[in-house]
Amino acid sequence: MAKNKNLIYIAISIIAFIVLAFLYSTPVFTGKQLFQHDIVQYRGGAKELIDYRADTGKETYWSDSMFGGMPTYQMGSRFTGDIIKNIDSALNFFPRPVNYIFMLFAGFFLLGMVAVRNWKYALLGATFFGLSTYFYIAIAAGHNGKINTIEYFAPLLAGILLVYIRKQYIWGFIVTTLFMGLQIAANHPQMTYYLFLALGFLFLSELIRAIQKKIPMKHFLISSGIIAASCIIGVGMNSQRIMANSEYVKETVRGKQILTNESHTEGNSGMDKESMLMWSYGKLETLNLFIPRLMGGGSQEPEGKEMMTRVQELVQENVGSQAEMDRISKGFGNLTYWGDQPGTSGPAYQGAIVCFLALLGFFFAWKKYRYWILGASILTIFLAWGSNFMALSDFFIDFVPFYNKFRAPSSILVVVELLFPLIAIIGLYRFFTDKELTTEYKQKILLYVGGGTLGFVLILLIFGKSLLGFHTENEKTYLPPFLLDYLVEERFKLFRIDAIKAFIYVAIAAAALFLVLKQKLNQNIALLIIGVVSLFDLWTVNKRYLNDDNYVDKIFAENPFQTESSDLMAEKVQGNPNLEPILANVNVNKTLETIAEKDKTHYRIFNNILGTFSETNTSYFKSSIGGYHAVKLRRYDDVINEYFQIMDSVKVPNILNLLNAKYLVLGGPEQPQAIPNPKANGNAWFVSELKFVESPNQEIKSIGVIDSKKTAVIASSDKKYFEGKTIQPDSTAYINLTKYQPNELEFKSQSKTPQLAVFSEIYYPHGWKFFIDGKEVPYIKADYLLRAVHVPAGNHDIRMVFEPEVIEKGKWISLICFGLFILLSGAGIYFLYRKKGGRQALPKEE
Known about the structure:
The chain crosses the membrane at residues 7-25, 98-116, 121-141, 147-164, 169-186, 192-208, 220-237, 348-366, 371-392, 412-433, 445-464, 499-517, 524-541, 812-833. The protein is 54% helix and 10% strand. With 846 residues, it is an alpha+beta fold. The strands form 6 sheets. Strands 11-12-18-14-15 form a 5-stranded antiparallel sheet, with no helix packed on it. Strands 8-13-17-16 form a 4-stranded antiparallel sheet, with no helix packed on it. Strands 5-6-7 form a 3-stranded mixed sheet, with helices on both faces. The two termini are 28 Å apart.
């Protein structure tokens, strides 16, 4: 009876999560969809991939849509035999973002049930975790892969705790393996990496407990073996994805550096430190886990518009010279954010009550949870400081494997957003239920922590202006007093509102706990009060960053690259900052569409209006010189940095010719101009001269000054390719593209003498194969980033095809691992119910 009653409560909790997720996302009822910046960019960049899939029913793992061409592994490619990804899709069947919100709730609910075995606390913890503000900021931005990964944090940890803490080996194996597989399938390695940094503390904690004989060493070894096997199988189920990306990442900005200059050293791996640590959390800024607008919140808070209007009025009233205006411009940054990051969409707010209960949890929770969660939380906070704690950051960058592959250390705070709700509900559960804790001890800790927390907020409220400053050093240097004083006062108001709220919320929670101790309030009522107040707090803060304004009509969400404007469209767009760029870019999009329709041959477009290397409008209509992607090929990124940062009027055209930029889109958004580039090299050409150079630096410098139609720059290491081969000029020779698909190109050539053909296709050493008259031949890199092949005299059919071997190998490994998971899980469940009736003894808490 009790079991059935518990199942009913669990079912009610699941229904509650569905209701909350839909209530937060009410515009989905009217058919509206989220408008997410990164997803808009994805739609443009992945258009060629999506079209190819629709036209052929097959998958291409290469696309020419962005940056001259790149693998599609990080652009939404699908892998055959990818069963685990199908499971992920099935679990996320609700419309976006309902699916993410529900899964965040449900995943932590499972973790809560494992940790405290009580649905009330699991439900409370699920709302703590599922409403963490950072997740809603990420959803609004379109970081879907990140959220998809985070939603599996809690259930993966639940599986590990089932093994280590609950000694439920079989169920622990099943849960850990499944959610390890789903975690990897979500395809955000950075988030998974950060989670496993924290899980390392759990492993150390269990090892220490085994050494101290608090748990049997045999149990620790068996548990560690089971978890290791689970992780291996879970990873194995994603072999295609992992093998392909592992191969790819070596050639990207996350792999080894090729050039040697001020910011790079040839052979070093990963990104340069400046790029890695650009988004580093300030030390004081960490307190916005507790007070959301401690440092102004996000760069675009709702109050920012009113502040901007007043700033403009103040400038008009007080500034009388251009020199003074120029000085103000140097100091003018974000109105509503004044932290250490270049800018931010919002704070990593965890909730005032959650932080307060987490502090209590570090006193009340069982030691087996307390110390590893504390250690993991401290480490991740310190790492989030990035450039503001260089001693630790340098150590991790230089000595901890793979850490230097990831940027934006502030995002590691997702670990805290998992662990604080966990320690909070564990501490709260023990506070209410554990007879070993005396009332006197509870009252003392509650007094110290509650009083200390409230006192801290009061100190900030009273002395905040002098302690926090509410301005940056740059603002203090350049802004006149009338502007600086105004900004400080307005920012202090934003802070004061949230600080007072935090004080009230914590006071309510502390009072509820105190009244329970005094037996003047029922425990369930106290939990309800804490849950409702915390939900209200997080819900209202989250609505600042993800609200009804983020939803748009389906037509805009699914086709953000409009080519026609109308009065109706203007009416719908007016006042919506998310949609205004759509209307502003109509003329540019129309120009791109016209080019693509009139000239259906294969070429690239250089769009200098929308920000060449931060837009995918061009890619939506035709192959682009630019694009928008965080994991570009290293060689292409080097060319961008070498030539397009300065825009040399002689060298840049040479590079555009090399990359077959047949059209340039110049001018402004209102009157874009499509200018043909008759000097573009074309899809392929024969060269008559070779220039051998000794270093990558010489390679990249040379391509900006040579006549690339006549001369090819070749690395001296490729001299051996020409042994036994000759190249002789032939003015009548030609090579033409006869068939184009993103993963297969065919050419016809004719020459009286042997030639070196250079192709305006990006060099990638894995997966591309060349065939001349049906026979596979080797090829080399030319001009730093292009492909080249030696062509004998005569008439020839040349074909290049992208057939990465890792895809086929990975498919079979993935299928074998998934089959192994099903086999072992089935055998385990059969054994469990056959021998033990589906029950295992639960260990006593300690």
